[in-house]
């Protein structure tokens, strides 16, 4: 976003309202005020007039011919079959600008539980789980919002199931930190997961929500 003069960001399947795409554009402009933001919708009835500097157009995962630096698709693949996910990921990542990224995920209606896969031109890079610390009793509760590629894999024997079980166990072990608030408690639980060998990205102190970012390779469903 910062290294390109006027980067392009595309929100695929923005839905019935402009709200989230316009809010996303506001955040992205803090990184680069020249960012161009386009919302794409497959449903012609949902294509809206441009507003707040954001354009809305008809299109899908072929990205309407664009080669964006950043693509976001939230709560879109939920309606698809899990077998269709790799094809969609390829369609988007093969159209990214050099160095571009794709964020594909799901969240609840209020955005208090979210999970997304980060992909680059080479495929999936990481999985992030993020939750409102005051709304979620334990990290495993985010399982209900896992991306399509993983939601049916949260069963014993699968890596994502092992990660969520370890995260809940680490959360329970960190209960002594609860009086300091759920963010401090999570930092201790996060450290225990790292100690256990999970390849987690370092915790970012300034984030509002509790998050966990793990290398995709550690949670990728094994080929059956
Ligand atoms: C549940 S809404 C999600 C809206 C918004 N992204 C959100 O998270 O609130 C899913 C939207 O994706 C759109 N959609 C489904 N498949 C699509 C595709 N291949 N390309 C673009 N939009 C698609 C649907 O028309 C619908 O408006």
Explain the layout of strands and helices:
Elements: E1 8-12, H1 19-31, E2 36-41, E3 54-58, E4 70-74, H2 85-93, E5 101-107, E6 113-120, E7 123-131, H3 148-151, H4 159-173, H5 182-195, E8 210-215, H6 216-219
Parallel strand pairs: 1-2, 1-4, 2-3, 4-5
Antiparallel strand pairs: 5-6, 6-7, 7-8
Helix pairs in contact: 4-5
Bound molecules: S-adenosylmethionine.
Low-pLDDT residue intervals, each spanning 5 or more residues: none
| Helix content class | 25-40%
- Lateral arrangement of strands in the main beta sheet: 3-2-1-4-5-6-7-8
Radius of gyration of CA atoms, rounded to a whole number: 18 Å
Overall pLDDT: 95
The biggest beta sheet reads: 8 strands, mixed
What order do the helices and strands follow?
EHEEEHEEEHHHEH
Strand content: 15-25%
Count of alpha and pi helical runs: 6
Q: Report the span from N to C terminus.
A: 38 Å
Structural class: alpha/beta
Summarize the structure.
The protein has six helices and eight strands, in the order βαβββαβββαααβα.
Descriptive notes:
The longest helix is centred in the last third of the chain and has 15 residues, at 159-173. The protein is 26% helix and 23% strand. The protein is built from six helices and eight strands; from the N terminus they run E-H-E-E-E-H-E-E-E-H-H-H-E-H. The model has no long low-confidence stretch (mean pLDDT 95). It binds S-adenosylmethionine. Residues 12-15, 20, 40-43, 46, 60-61, 74-76, 79 line the site of S-adenosylmethionine (SAM).
Sum up the structure in keywords.
single chain, 224 residues, alpha/beta, eight-stranded mixed sheet, 6 helices, 8 strands, 26% helix, binds S-adenosylmethionine
């Amino acid at each position: 976003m910062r290294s390109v003069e006027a980067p392009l960001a595309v929100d695929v399947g923005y839905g019935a309202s402009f709200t989230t795409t316009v809010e996303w554009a506001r955040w992205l402009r803090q990184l680069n005020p020249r960012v161009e933001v386009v919302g794409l919708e497959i449903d012609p009835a949902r294509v809206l007039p441009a507003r707040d500097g954001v354009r809305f157009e008809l299109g899908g995962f072929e990205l309407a011919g664009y080669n964006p630096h950043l693509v976001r698709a939230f709560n879109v693949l939920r309606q698809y079959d899990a077998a269709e996910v790799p094809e969609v990921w390829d369609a988007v990542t093969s159209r990214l600008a050099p160095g571009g990224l794709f964020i594909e995920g799901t969240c609840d209606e209020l955005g208090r539980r979210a999970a997304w896969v980060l992909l680059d031109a080479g495929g999936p890079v990481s999985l992030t789980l993020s939750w409102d610390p005051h709304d979620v009793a334990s990290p495993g509760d985010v399982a209900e919002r896992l991306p399509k590629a993983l939601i049916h894999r949260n069963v014993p024997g699968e890596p994502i199931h092992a990660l969520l079980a370890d995260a809940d166990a680490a959360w329970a072990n960190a209960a002594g930190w609860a009086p300091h608030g759920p963010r401090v408690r999570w930092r201790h639980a996060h450290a225990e997961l790292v100690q256990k060998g999970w390849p987690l990205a370092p915790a970012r102190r300034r984030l509002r929500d509790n998050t966990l970012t793990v290398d995709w390779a550690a949670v990728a469903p094994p080929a059956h």
